[in-house]
Specification:
Rossmann fold, transferase, 15 strands, UDP_glucos_trans, alpha/beta, about 450 residues, UDP-glycosyltransferase activity, UDP:flavonoid glycosyltransferase YjiC (YdhE family)
């Protein structure tokens, strides 16, 4: 039996688990769903999925604190949970796995499963590393971080920052201390490095080789390399982004039907202050702005040109806008590519830097560090006014198109962003909605 464990403090991790659940259902493979709770738990309810909450449930306050302390944002000396929380969740999860005959735990950033799986003797599959995986570090593909966690690197030359970013993940125990204290007390295998904290026995890499630039992920092993659990393996499954089963509100469609340009601002799992600053900058331009506010209360910022909403089905919105602005989570980047919509990324941590860099080199995006948010209006104007771009690559487009919004005449051809006017146009690659998850070579070991 498979158990899916989404971290419902994150819309991205919750929606990815929904996609995996959908794929398993299509295969006729039963799965249980368990979570620690969180504000996006309602997405499970809306999808009609039965699930169990382990522990007291995450309040909005605790969820926000967790997100703010997470990898790339919080102090690397802490572990997002305190030791008592880690121990409690590990024991609850292990008991749940035993009680329900779980043999495979699939997690979206529910990091305690790295220990509970060892305690219960089950395999753990992760997807939350995205493209932030060892073959990327080993090929020195990580860009210099926009916001280094180590303040000593804030003013370092980019070449040094980039070198350390690629060398460090499997050599530093960042964010692992609490997990390792609990692992030692329980007598189970610990977590040797930051990279290992993001990897399972099998890690799903939701990207295609033409974007990632690596074609032999499945051949990678940790043999002879420091900082990894010996059982770690990778498999490429193709794009894995949300198709939330939500209708597009009539008021949203009415705004999208009006003359543009239209900008979609969807900065999820982001401090409200940063979202407010982005809206304030964009409000100086003659635009129609659609904001996916998710859990933030931003209603006071609404005007006749700014529509504030909660969670929106981005796969229905992005094909209808002229520019999408996100923090560069892999799901939003892939949704923009599948929609042929230029992307402006404001990355909060290194994994998002990587996601944006991968598509920026294809001419499909530009990035803006949060520290340079004062330039948002200028860069937005530049991207909207650039008429020399090729159609945006749709390497993330699923073979079975998601439900589409009501058709209407296009305002403009989908455009690439950036100034790479002479870059080679990539091929039109079509992938399964959840990549080749059904055919991943190692799956026989787990399912």
């Amino acid at each position: 039996m498979i158990c899916l464990l989404p971290h419902c403090a994150y819309l991205s991790e919750t929606s990815r688990m929904l996609e995996i659940h959908r794929a398993l259902t299509e295969l006729g493979v039963p799965a249980r769903v368990a979570t620690h709770g969180g504000p996006h738990e309602r997405r499970l309810v809306e999808a009609g999925i039965q699930y169990d909450v382990l522990g007291p449930g995450l309040s909005p306050t605790r969820s926000a604190a967790f997100v703010g302390s997470a990898i790339g944002l919080g102090d690397p000396r802490q572990s997002m949970y305190d030791d008592a929380e880690i121990r409690s969740y590990v024991q609850l999860e292990a008991e749940y796995f035993r009680a329900h005959g779980i043999t495979v735990a699939v997690t979206g950033f529910t990091l305690t499963t790295l220990l509970s799986s060892r305690l219960a003797g089950v395999q753990v599959i992760t997807e939350h590393a995205g493209s932030f995986v060892p073959p990327v570090f080993e090929r020195r593909l990580l860009p210099a971080p926009s916001q280094p966690v180590d303040p000593r690197l804030a003013h370092a030359p980019k070449w040094l920052s980039r070198y350390l970013a690629n060398r460090a993940p499997n050599r530093i125990p960042a964010y692992c201390a609490g997990f390792n204290r609990v692992a030692e007390s329980l007598g189970v295998e610990g977590i040797p490095s930051l990279s290992a904290l993001l990897l399972g026995d099998l890690s799903l890499v939701p990207e295609v080789p033409e974007v990632l630039g690596i074609s032999d992920l499945d051949a990678w092993t940790p043999a002879g390399k420091p900082g990894y659990r010996a059982t770690t393996r990778l498999t490429s499954v193709g794009p894995l982004f949300a198709h939330l089963d939500l209708p597009l509100p009539t008021r949203v469609q009415q705004v999208l039907d009006q003359p543009g340009p239209h900008v979609y601002l969807a900065m999820t799992s982001t401090p409200a202050e940063l979202v407010r600053s982005a809206i304030a900058s964009l409000a100086t331009l003659d635009l129609r702005i659609l904001v996916a506010g998710t859990i933030h209360d931003l209603a006071d910022l609404a005007t006749d040109r700014i529509l504030i909403e909660g969670v929106l089905p981005s796969h229905l919105v992005m094909p209808q806008v002229d520019l999408a602005i996100t923090t560069g989570g892999q799901g939003s980047v892939q949704t923009a590519m599948a929609s042929g919509t230029p992307l402006l990324g404001i990355p909060l941590h290194l994994e998002q830097d990587l996601n944006i860099a991968l598509v920026e080199r294809l001419g499909a995006a530009r990035h803006l560090p949060p520290t340079q948010l004062s330039q948002l209006a200028t860069l937005t104007t530049t991207m909207l006014n650039n008429t020399h771009h090729r159609p945006a690559p749709n390497t993330s487009k699923p073979s079975t198109p998601p439900p589409t919004a009501p058709p209407k005449p296009p305002r403009r051809s989908p455009q690439n962003s950036g100034d790479l006017n002479h870059c080679r146009e990539p091929p039109d690659l079509r992938c399964h909605r959840v990549g080749d998850l059904r055919f991943a070579p190692p799956r026989g070991r787990f399912i």
